[in-house]
Amino acid sequence: MAIEKTNEFGKISVSNDAIAMLAGGVITESYGVVGMASQQVFKDGLAELLKGENYSKGVIVRKTDAGYDLDVYIIVSYNVKISEVVLEVQKKAKYMLEKSLQQEFNSINVFVQGIKVVK
């Protein structure tokens, strides 16, 4: 399920992996975010820190009647206010995605999968 648009020159299709890469790049640059996490937490409760090419494992894009919903899974830094980090992630991701893709994103749901001490 990709974002598709048609104009006078032809059809444009943006894949979910491309959306995940765009969202992941913006999110990992946010203050307090250590990185993207996998949707699935390992058996022992640890979350996998994803590299740039695997952001699609930590981002889910869903199409609804009113627009798109995005679920992102992150790992935050120790000793930061998690609610502020999550709010900033939501604002930055929504702004960048709507500006870049010219599509309405209803919700950016952020799931904190872990906290990591950064030295």
Give the secondary structure arrangement, pairings included.
Elements: E1 3-7, E2 10-14, H1 16-28, E3 33-36, E4 59-63, E5 68-77, H2 82-101, E6 105-116
Parallel strand pairs: 5-6
Antiparallel strand pairs: 1-2, 3-5, 4-5
Uncertain ranges:
none
Distance between the termini: 40 Å
Per DSSP, the total helix count is 2
- Number-wise, the strands total 6
Radius of gyration: 15 Å
Percent in helix: 25-40%
Q: Helix and strand succession? A: EEHEEEHE
Quaternary status of these chains? single chain
Which structural class do the helices and strands define?
alpha+beta
On the 0 to 100 scale, the average pLDDT is 85
Share of residues in strands: 25-35%
* Biggest pleated-sheet summary: 4 strands, mixed
- Shape label: elongated
Tag the structure with descriptive keywords.
2 helices; elongated; 4-stranded mixed beta sheet; 28% helix; two-stranded antiparallel sheet; alpha+beta; 119 residues
Architecture overview:
This protein is an alpha+beta fold. It has 2 helices and 6 strands. The strands form 2 sheets. Strands 3, 4, 5 and 6 form a 4-stranded mixed β-sheet that branches. It has a two-stranded antiparallel ribbon with strand order 1-2. Helix 1 packs across helix 2. It is elongated and about 50 Å long. 26% of the residues are buried.
